Amino acid sequence: MKQLQVELKEKSYPIYIGSGLLQEKELLVKHIKSRQVIVVTNTTVGTIYLNSVLKHLDGFQVEVIELPDGEQFKTLEYVTKIFDKLLESKFNRSATLIALGGGVIGDMGGFAAACYQRGIPFIQIPTTVLAQVDSSVGGKTGVNHALGKNMIGAFYQPQCVLADMDVLNTLDDRQLIAGIAEIIKYGLIRDLVLFEWLENNMSLLLQRDSNALAYVIERSCANKAEIVAEDEFESGIRAILNLGHTFGHAIETGMGYGKYLHGEAVAIGIGFASDLSKRMGWLSKEEVDRIIALLKSAKLPVVPPKEMAVEQYIDLMAVDKKNIDGKIRLILLESIGKATLPVSVEQSLLEQTLRSYAG
Fold it and tell me: Which residues are tagged catalytic?
């Protein structure tokens, strides 16, 4: 087992990474603050892994809520179902919420924990590659709105993140590949060594080689932990974690939540951001070609949905948390391995990228 630490003074917490961690009772129980525990999962993950968690909770007052599986259910309506269960069970503010699932469950469970009685402890048990390398770490929680992704939420840190690599054995190929998009992102924004490793070893990840997965999960979490420790509330450097996300969120919203997995949309967004970085005079054509080649080698989509027009992208990108005074601000690349802080771009250049890349 590897253990990393997210250093946030009194809010610091460990990230555990390894195989068989769901079988380690003490690893989980030592982070539970009282006898009241609610486990939030979805119908897919719950069928496979819920009992692995519940067997450690003998003697606790345990409630379970299984939500439908999918990004389209990441809404206030379904978070309210978590509140209903907490209130019906008369859970107090020392109760612990365990989020057992991928990014959607982690975001919703964390948001419910942040809001219930103004904050209760919660634990992240991420069950997808994307959640293990990215969304479970850093305390971003929230839900989607019809007009924008993740526009309702809170920064709220967990007690710990327990990333059991064994759960990835039951992850389907599409979800596995979607998670690789976030790993590529870390290489692009600050970790050239990781990017070059991915260029040489992508086939190992696609084959689910355990050593390769362990390497990228640990390295990705280490990258994110360092950034979050420096900038918990995304007032500065943490914004670089959003490379490709403004474009990707527009795709997810415009196409309807669930049509594209988050990582798939981000992969397309990275392509957009790379093209725009070239138009800004930062990336060379050769660097853009390397980025697209790596995305393709991961079997990620790089072609935007033909149903979306340039004007729709711009309208949706105008609803983004990085924007200031109505100006679209984007994370771009100065080079492979170095991202910019949010920059305003000329709309004419943005439209050129959208028209060229989206066809």
Answer: 118, 140, 182, 224, 234, 238, 242, 245, 249, 262
